[in-house]
Write a structure and sequence with these properties.
The protein has about 500 residues and is of the alpha+beta class. Helices cover about 20% and strands about 40% of the residues. A hairpin with a 4-residue loop joins strand 2 and strand 3. The chain starts with a helix and ends with a helix.
């Protein structure tokens, strides 16, 4: 009965190990458990203290930021456009995601932000519940940064300063911003700024500038960074440190062969001028020119029409290519007309020597296959056991295609030679390229010299079928002859 009495008065929820304790101790421990449970429930029910700095939000893990912790901070606006809203307090910069209709604010204004945390798609951010302007302020001092630092992602949303050379300028899709392509330490990035007058925008190209702006990271769906851009809120955030030449086409031309050659002294990273003859032009994409000795590929967005034989002056930025230098962000002007360049006929070994990269050549080969790859139409060719490709440069959507040709035909190919260096380069005349491609100007660059033998024209299946019919006919003929001979023997006997 005593055991029953103790069990009936024991508080519910007490663990079984407490059955062996004295009644007084048992009651004390049970009370402690009840008190601890009630305090835990009160702690869970109590609202969390808001985070008061941007640095506190940035230090959260994605899992912690997913809890929508409350945030209340005072900060200065560093950039404010649709889908790009950044503020920065004394500790760090942070991105704001609009959750309600936010007021129109200006860079440099002080605001009070209330909201909750979010993991964001790359770094933790704030889903803003309210933004209140509390006064005017100044943009924070820009942190001097390097390209290497910005590519780590740690400066995401921060107000930074970075210098570089402007490679191209264009108006954004919405027509309200200008976008500057800038190169710094070999890395190309975009600067977004307020729209500038057209004259000022063109003067910027080839200028050395310093940009103060918010670092906006570019990332994939796995939260991994692949680039960055700078968002400059004010026109004064883009400072020209070294202006470009006032009349860039008036500078002296240099030879194509001098591009990226050794120079003990000289400027680096700025535009150069080349003068040459047009070999091939694909408006808005590619321009190949040549001078007396060399050829070069010019990457250009210009669409002014040119034809083979036109004389042009080209301004662009030298950069390393697959094997020979290329000219990036090129612009051009026509200065005359002339005869279209003639191709140089080469053998396989001469092509692989690499001295005719980006030049117009001819080579004889056997057609193995013709096919399409993506938006490219190309031929698979063979010369002395070496297989290479030739492709049409114009978009497949234009309807341009090759004339009917049979596999196995001997053809003469004319086109731009594009060397594929491979990994086993070495100095010296004995080196040969891994491979090469040929860029065809039109389907007329492929001329059939010798069609394939008739059995190849018929196709393998047809040829085998014909052979089987011939063999069966021969067997039948032999059988008939054998019967006749047997009949004659019987008559003579």
């Amino acid at each position: 009965m005593k055991s029953v009495h103790n069990n009936t008065h024991k508080p519910s929820g007490v663990p079984s190990f407490m059955k062996r304790l004295r009644p007084g101790v048992e009651s004390l421990l049970a009370g402690c458990l009840v008190l601890a449970s009630s305090q835990l429930a009160m702690a869970q029910a109590a609202p969390a203290e808001p985070l008061l700095t941007a640095a506190q939000v940035r230090s959260l893990t994605p899992q912690q930021a997913s809890a929508h912790l409350p945030v209340r901070l005072k900060a200065v606006v560093t950039y404010w456009e649709v889908y790009s809203r950044f503020v920065q307090d004394e500790t760090a910069g942070i991105y704001l995601l609009e959750n309600t209709n936010l007021p129109v604010v200006k860079p440099g204004q002080m605001v009070e932000v209330e909201g909750v945390t979010s993991p964001g798609e790359y770094a933790p951010m704030i889903i803003s519940g309210s933004v209140k302007v509390v006064g005017d302020g100044n943009l924070p001092a820009a942190k001097r940064a390097t390209v290497e630092e910005l590519l780590t992602g740690q400066e995401d949303s921060q107000f930074v300063e970075l210098g570089g050379i402007v490679r191209a300028v264009r108006v954004s899709g919405d027509g309200k911003q200008c976008e500057l392509d800038v190169l710094s330490s070999g890395e190309r990035f975009t600067v977004r700024s307020r729209l500038l007058p057209a004259a000022e925008m063109q003067v910027l190209v080839d200028s050395t500038i310093k940009v103060r702006g918010v670092c906006s990271s570019l990332f994939n769906r796995q939260r991994q960074l692949f680039g960055f851009r700078l968002l400059a809120a004010l026109p004064t955030n883009v400072v020209i440190e070294q202006p470009a030449p006032a009349n860039p086409f008036e500078v002296a031309s240099q030879s194509i062969g001098s591009l990226l050659q050794f120079k003990a002294r000289g400027s680096f990273g700025h535009r150069v001028k080349l003068t040459g003859t047009v070999v091939y032009h694909e408006p808005g994409s590619a321009l190949f020119i040549r001078d007396e000795k060399e050829g070069v590929y010019c990457q250009t967005r210009e669409r002014a029409p040119l034809k083979a034989g036109d004389r042009v002056e080209v301004l662009g930025f030298p950069a390393k290519g697959e094997y020979s230098p290329v000219l990036q962000d090129a612009i051009y002007r026509k200065i005359g007309e002339g005869a279209a360049p003639m191709p140089t006929k080469l053998g396989l070994d001469e092509v692989l020597a690499g001295t005719n990269d980006c030049q117009l050549i001819q080579i004889s080969a056997k057609l193995l296959e013709r096919t399409e790859r993506g938006r490219e139409r190309f031929l698979v060719l063979e010369s002395k056991g070496f297989i290479f490709n030739a492709y049409l440069g114009q978009d497949i959507a234009s309807g341009v295609g090759f004339a009917p040709m049979q596999n196995g035909s001997e053809v003469l190919i004319t086109g731009l030679c594009l060397i594929e260096r491979g990994a086993n380069w070495r100095a010296g005349e004995g080196w040969r390229a891994k491979s090469f491609r040929m860029l065809l100007r039109s389907p007329a660059d492929v001329v059939v010299q010798t069609p394939p033998p008739w059995w190849m024209q018929w196709g393998f299946g047809r040829t085998i079928g014909v052979l089987i019919v011939i063999i069966l006919a021969a067997l039948l003929r032999i059988s008939v002859l054998q019967r006749r001979l047997a009949a004659q023997r019987q008559k003579t006997t």
